């Protein structure tokens, strides 16, 4: 104790190859070691004016517009049999009203026109039900997708800046290791240290604050 030296230490100390050259380690009977990473929760901020288009994907919206245009063309082509539609504009207006579930005082007179109108109504009622459910879910709970789940996923992104506690065994693992993806992560951290030394700070609170 006078020479500020110790012959035995009882503490949680990670064993590495370099440390094993100068000291002996005794492991516990039951011991488990794991590594994990913490990341800043991404913020999803979207304009409220565009919230009505979130329940459906762009392809679904595009298919809906194509269906309305296609059915309108069929009603226009079938207008010669349906005397109820006096013009092509009325047949198009009937299709748009059915798509928006507003109804129409007009109704196709031919059998083919009625089958087409019934099919359109069933399709639009189904889409409206799915749209209402998805819109409620989008406005109630925002989905949080984990940006990465493994160290390999961490090397394939450039959005998050990586860092670790300096002077720890992790610095030896990522800095001196030859296995992937640890070597790639170590190179990125040391490259970022040139402009931001805090990525290898020894203070845990400094990393959590970032």
From TrEMBL:
Give the GO molecular function terms.
ligand-gated monoatomic ion channel activity
State the superkingdom: Eukaryota
Tell me where it mainly resides. Answer: membrane
Entry's transmembrane regions: 59-78
**What cellular component GO annotations does this protein have?**
plasma membrane
Please name the Pfam families in this protein's record: Lig_chan (PF00060)
- Every copy of the Ionotropic glutamate receptor C-terminal domain together lies at 86-158
User: One GO BP annotation here?
Assistant: detection of stimulus involved in sensory perception
Q: How does it sit in the membrane?
A: Multi-pass membrane protein
Keywords from UniProt, A to Z, are: Cell membrane, Glycoprotein, Membrane, Receptor, Transmembrane, Transmembrane helix
The subcellular location is: Cell membrane
The protein's name is Ionotropic glutamate receptor C-terminal domain-containing protein
Which species does this protein come from? Capitella teleta (Polychaete worm)
């Amino acid at each position: 104790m006078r020479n500020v030296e110790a012959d035995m230490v009882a503490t949680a100390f990670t064993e590495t190859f370099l440390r094993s050259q100068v000291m002996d380690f005794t492991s516990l009977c039951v011991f488990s070691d794991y590594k994990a990473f913490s990341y800043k929760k991404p913020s999803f901020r979207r304009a409220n004016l565009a919230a009505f288009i979130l329940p459906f994907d762009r392809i679904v919206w595009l298919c809906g517009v194509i269906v309305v245009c296609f059915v309108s063309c069929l009603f226009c082509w079938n207008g010669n049999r349906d005397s109820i539609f006096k013009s092509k504009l009325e047949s198009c207006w009937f299709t748009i009203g059915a798509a928006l579930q507003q109804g129409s005082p007009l109704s196709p007179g031919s059998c083919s026109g009625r089958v087409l109108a019934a099919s359109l109504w069933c399709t639009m009622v189904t889409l409206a039900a799915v749209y209402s459910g998805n819109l409620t879910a989008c406005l109630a709970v925002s989905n949080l997708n984990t940006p990465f789940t493994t160290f390999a996923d961490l090397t394939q992104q450039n959005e998050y800046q990586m860092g670790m506690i300096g002077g720890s065994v992790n610095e030896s693992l990522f800095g001196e290791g030859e296995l992937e993806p640890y070597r790639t992560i170590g190179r990125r951290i040391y490259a970022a240290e040139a402009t931001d030394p805090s990525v290898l700070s020894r203070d845990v609170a400094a990393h959590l604050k970032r």
